[in-house]
Amino acid sequence: xxxxxxxxxxxxxxxxxxxxxEPYPSGPFEKExxxxxxxxxxxxxxxxxxxxxxxxxxxxxxxxxxQDESGRIQVVLNKKEFDGDYKLxxxxxxxxxxxxxxxxxxxxxxxxxxxxxxxxxxLSKSILPLPDKHKALQDExxxxxxxxxxxxxxxEIKDMIYKRDIFWNSIRxxxxxxxxxxxxxxxxxxxxxGADAEPFATHHNxxxxxxxxxxxxxxxxxxRLMIAGLEKxxxxxxxxxxxxxxxxxxxxxxxxxxxxxxxxxxKGMKLVEELFKFIAQETFGTLKFKIRDFDVDLGGEWKxxxxxxxxxxxxxxxxxxxxxxxxxxxxxxxxxxxxxxxFNMNRAIDTLWKYCRKQISGPxxxxxxxxxxxxxxxxxxxxxxxxxxxxxxxxxxxxxxxYSELNDPIxxxxxxxxxxxxxxxxxxxxxxxDEDFVEAMEYGMPPVCGxxxxxxxxxxxxxxxxxxxxxxxxxxxx
Length: 478
What we know:
Blueprint: H1 2-18, H2 34-37, E1 45-57, E2 61-68, E3 71-78, H3 86-92, E4 98-107, E5 113-124, H4 140-145, H5 147-153, H6 155-176, E6 181-182, E7 188-189, E8 201-204, E9 209-213, H7 219-228, E10 232-240, E11 252-261, H8 265-284, E12 288-291, E13 294-297, E14 303-306, H9 307-315, H10 324-333, H11 345-357, E15 364-367, E16 369-370, E17 386-387, E18 389-394, E19 397-404, H12 409-424, H13 435-441, E20 448-454, H14 456-462, H15 466-469
């Protein structure tokens, strides 16, 4: 069926070629947005262009709806007034074709605002049919795989793309207004850093060495800039983690991280709360959201959740008075699934916390996390087993991570060695020992607050899965 339709459309394409009409001209075609043209005075000369979405041949009259980025407008071909081979155009145009139309504004006898075509330019002849608008792309995988078709029929997807643009640029606006400098740092690294994650590995042919795709938004590079004397930097870009996929986690996604010299995590929390409110209002025009089963008001009180106390309250486990066997027993009793390979005390505690986190609505900040889980954060003076770190908690998930950055090179070197020991024991997500970064720190790094958030924030505020909220998510090859 599809093959026969394609052959018929190619036949029509050839008819245009034989008539001396180029089916794929290079342009330009000067057009106006249909949303503007539709409000112009009657009889004014206009020029519109777009994809044919409806086509009705009524003999001496033909009605079309063409769609451009701004919307749709009706175009009418009247055989008596059309300056061209009426029959050629009517018999060989199809839904899906791109055309340019010059004519004048008029209203049909039913009062519909339209364009009366005087001449037509073929801009692109389609040779595959558009799906039926009522049956189009019902399968979720097909919607993601053929996102371009989903966008044609579902304006909410197009609206999501616009919102993504506003979202990231609102972050830029917020930070630039506070004198942050946007920077770019390497995507390919010899040693990954800045997160507990398994990287993608590749080979650099020119230098004949193995490298990794970054797992953070240049954390250790931006800290080098703090060492160099810059005081406020941020980066927005793509990062990569070779881990499992679920509704929240992707392997290829956009991240933002900022670093702020002479600030600590408390100042960071205040700034981040302001940032979240700003981007929500700029992007969505509201601070109230329905996310999964939670009603979240970003304009309400941002609570603080103590890591140890929350786990103890929800599971009865005091993480400082148990061993890995005790925690594993509790995890299994609660029916929590976990990855057994490379499982250690750090992973056990983190697994227990994630169980608790899913029950917290927020908005708020997780604080007082154990030092064993935070190899780059500063110790708390009054409780050295904890660090000056915070996570943004919204709708049962962590939507941002910040801390007072560790700037003691001796302490940092020891923590890197401990992380390397975990890697050697099978924990592929433990951080690598970056000796070059430690050397840079030995020249002196001021107090710094760092914070990072990914496009997961956007997907949550959209109340969509991570894949749905990307424009073109990675799909498995057919």
